[in-house]
Amino acid sequence: MRYQFKFRPYQRRFLRSLTTNHGTWDIREGIILRLTDESGKLGWGEIAPISWFGSETLEQALDFCRQIPGEITDEIIFSIPDELPACQFGFESAWEMGSGGDNFITPNSSLFYSGLLPAGEAALNQWETLWQKGYRTFKWKIAVDAIADELKIFESLIHALPTSTKLRLDANGGLSCEEANLWLSTCDNLKANGELPLKIEFIEQPLPVEQFQRMLELSTSYETAIALDESVATLGQLAACHQQGWRGIFVIKPGIVGSPSRLRKFCHQHQIDTVFSSVFETAIGRKSALQLAAELSRDNRAIGFGIDHFFEQEETWFQSLWNDL
User: What does the alpha-carbon distance between residue 128 and residue 125 come to, in Å, rounded to a whole number?
Assistant: First the structure.
């Protein structure tokens, strides 16, 4: 099958800068794709790279799109190289939603979301707003400020949050071994002493990617669970960590992990414990990402798509983007 192919780059500014151990992020840039089959049916996809997380750069994705002369085939879509995982996701998603999308279903309402809190003390001021919107699982960024300061904020936060809350601590690979041990032992000790009014669901990516073996050791040394994120950014990394013995939680970002069909195959084959998470994509990429989350989520874990409050809600941005020739 042949498809007419068009694409448009986009930029969306965060309402407030997103601060993580990787730095500060102010503008989300990506690419919207449109495939039109021979009968005129449309399929939409999105390429939303995060190069510092493990995907290709936006410029590499744009170069790939520019190389396609306006017409694309199934063969091209399913032979995009692994070095372009966000492109794999975007093109295959457009294919699924368009001509190949007879089996595409709308994700059901049984999915529940984790709300992303800002780093530092700002979390103490925002959790209640998200709670009122229905969030019962929160993720808080750590390894941004001095650990002594963050531990003080953490103590305030866990006593402020309602007891039915689940809290995830996301270090983005920014802790030292000593700091990771301190966070894990703090959580374990609070739980053991009955001082933890809520559940710490896991600490996400405590150490850098290259310290996988150390994280594997930590995962068996503490009660508090560890989830891998940056370590499993792409399908190749995910498979490698599983092969090396990781049986804990895998945080999967569909927008940059690679081919949806290959991800389905891997998850069905290995029945891994997954948490699906956003890459701050638009509604186009989110629809495909949530489809995968609905199909492949296990263990009743909240998915990490509670990020709407980081952007202005512009209902006409898509039409403006596509009509702006």
Answer: 7
Return the SS3 of 25. strand
CB atoms within 10 A of CB 247: 12
What does the block give as tokens for 219? 């995962």
Burial of 23 (C-beta count, 10 Å sphere; 0-12/13-18/19+): exposed
Alpha carbons 155 and 153: distance in angstroms, whole number: 5
User: CA 231, 212, 165, 310 torsion: positive or negative?
Assistant: negative
Q: How many residues are recorded in the chain?
A: 325
Strands (DSSP E) contained in the chain are 2-20, 23-36, 42-47, 71-73, 113-117, 137-141, 166-170, 199-204, 226-228, 249-252, 273-276, 303-306
Single out the catalytic residue among 139, 166, 253, 287: 253
Q: Are 84 and 270 in contact (CB under 8 A)?
A: no
Annotated catalytic residue, options 139, 141, 166, 287: 141
Count of C-beta atoms within a 10 Å radius of residue 244:
10
The answer to whether the pTM exceeds 0.70 is yes
pLDDT in tens, 37-80: 999 999 999 999 999 999 999 999 999 999 998 899 999 999 99
Exposed e or buried b for every residue in 285-307, given b needs 16+ CB within 10 A? bbbbbbbbbbebbeeebbbbbbb
Q: Does 133 qualify as catalytic in the annotation?
A: no
265 catalytic residue (yes or no): no
Half-sphere exposure for 152 (CA within 13 Å, toward CB): 6
